[in-house]
Amino acid sequence: MYAVAQSIHIKRPVEDVFKVVHNLPALPDWFVGVEKWEPIGSAHASVGDRYWVLLKVGAIAAGGEVAVTEVTEPTSIAWESRRGTKHRARFTLESEDGGCRARIELAFELSGAVSSRITELISGGMVRRSLAATLEQLRHHCEFEI
Amino acid sequence: MAENKSALISGAKTDFSERDPEFIRRMLPGLWLISTLYFRAEVTGMEKVPEGPVLFVGNHNGGSMPLDVPIFLLAFNTYFSVDRPLYALAHAMLTGAPGLGKLARRFGVLTAGPEAAREAFDQGASLLVYPGGDVEVMRPWSQRFEINFDGRKGFLKLAYESGVPIVPVVTDGMHDSLIVLTDGKQLAKKLRLDKLGRIKVLPIALAAPFGITVGDLFHVPFPVKVRTNVLDPIDLNAKYGDDIDYDHAYDYVTSTMQVGLKKLATKRTLPI
């Protein structure tokens, strides 16, 4: 899998930021590039809960059904694709200088030996900028809007 | 009339009548063509600008050739017509420059100063300011996605006391029109440029046509893609009431613009 990670310092305690990240139904409020994010059934943010998604992260569009695979309060939450574009996303939070450091990692499966390398080269910066914007929005949301 | 007397480079006296709406009207089509062809300029979000005087607050890019400023002036005058006055506050070096200073003043550029700003609002005009000034416009290329107002909060006081909303404007791309390797803050301090001309930086940059330059007095911008986006207005009086905390307001405005700039940068397909 091709993975890109970004992190940011947020001037709020880990527990406060986790509440925002854990509120998955409200993820489009701060995740840049979410075009569709619909719970399947009464999904919220427990392991096994599923969503229909369409994420446009830089040049990569990831669509399909995802399932929450990890919820460790208050430090991490992750999902993984079940149908559609194969990808996984993981947020981790750790205390840092009176606030917290939020990290997001997004991994995609790219097919083809040569074409996947080309895609990585071309799209790497775009995905990084997109994740950086997402974390910036999360920081602003946590510091000023809750 | 307001005059800047404290710096060696004092710039032009403030004269609102120098803005020439007919001149701007005549120049708009040709300048838009140049902006479109050379910079593929895009300006979005103008519909968010409320009626009446507003304080546009922008991030400053592009070294000695911050051409995103005239691009925004063009966009504003096109969208709202030249009959809605907009003035831009600029460093004395620009308004006082022979030839170029006169041209800038006809487009509504004034020497930066609080008196000129308040007078503009009193006349019902809007203002465009770049609080980061020379520090931000000469920031290293590696910080091109960062807002850097250098802790300057005067624009907040101006908006709050004048009762006008702040309209943040973020621009991405223009800071690729030269590659600033270092801003040379220490060097500027040692040469006392801050005392002589309120200049806090002395950048070393890679720029056309001279290659590596010190000071960036002039360069020909690379033909980069420039995107500008107008964000939602921020009414400090409504947000803070009678008890404003300028430190908090500064953090809030710069944070809002930081988000806006990073989101705008996601539209790029290439690093430059």
Descriptive overview:
The complex is a heterodimer of chains A (146) and B (272). Chain A contains 2 helices and 7 strands; from the N terminus they run E-H-E-E-E-E-E-E-H. Chain A is α+β, with helices and mostly antiparallel strands and 146 residues long. A 7-stranded antiparallel beta sheet of chain A has the order 1-7-6-5-4-3-2, covered by helices on one side. In chain A, strand 3 and strand 4 form a beta hairpin. The relative contact order of chain A is 0.26. Chain B is α/β, with parallel strands linked by helices and 272 residues long. Chain B contains 11 helices and 10 strands. In chain B, the strands form 2 sheets. Chain B has a 7-stranded mixed beta sheet, sandwiched between helices. A 3-stranded antiparallel beta sheet of chain B has the order 7-8-9, with no helix packed on it. The chains are: A alpha+beta (146), B alpha/beta (272).
Give the uncertain stretches of chain B in residue-range form. 1-9
**Class derived from helix and strand content of chain A:** alpha+beta
Order of helices and strands of chain B: HEEHEHHEHEHHEEHHEEEHH
Radius of gyration of chain A: 15 Å
Q: Percentage of helical residues of chain A?
A: 25-40%
Distance between the termini of chain A: 35 Å
Number of strands of chain B: 10
Gyration radius of chain B, rounded: 18 Å
Q: What strand line-up does the widest sheet of chain A have?
A: 1-7-6-5-4-3-2
Topology at a glance:
The complex is a heterodimer of chains A (146) and B (272).
Chain A: E1 2-10, H1 14-22, E2 34-39, E3 50-57, E4 60-72, E5 76-84, E6 87-96, E7 99-108, H2 113-144
Antiparallel strand pairs in A: 1-7, 2-3, 3-4, 4-5, 5-6, 6-7
Chain B: H1 21-39, E1 42-44, E2 55-58, H2 68-80, E3 86-90, H3 92-95, H4 100-106, E4 109-111, H5 114-122, E5 126-129, H6 133-137, H7 154-162, E6 166-172, E7 179-182, H8 185-190, H9 193-197, E8 204-207, E9 211-214, E10 227-230, H10 236-240, H11 246-265
